[in-house]
Specification:
about 90 residues; mainly alpha; Methane Monooxygenase Hydroxylase, Chain G, domain 1; 3 helices
Length: about 90
């Protein structure tokens, strides 16, 4: 357990950030999963699902939840699969 006031504050901050990062990461994973499913099923709203996934990836990379190159790699893979459909 932390002894000083600053260490206690750090613990509170870290817990808040951990929960927020987990929420953002979960949202990104869900968006990616639905976009990939739509791409494999060739459903009608593929473009919007891919756009939502890309937006989520950008936001997560901006916030520092995921690395920017990871976001770029995943966005590129989605765009390649979308281009292959159309």
């Amino acid at each position: 357990m932390a002894n000083t006031k600053s260490a206690l504050k750090r613990m509170r901050q870290n817990e808040k950030r951990r929960l927020r990062n987990r929420m953002v990461r979960s949202r990104v994973r869900s968006a990616l999963k639905s976009a990939r499913a739509a791409l494999s099923q060739r459903s009608g709203d593929v473009g919007t699902l891919v756009a939502q996934a890309i937006q989520g990836l950008d936001k997560a990379a901006t916030k520092g939840v995921i690395h920017k190159n990871t976001a770029a790699r995943k966005k590129s893979a989605l765009a390649r699969r979308l281009a292959a459909l159309g």
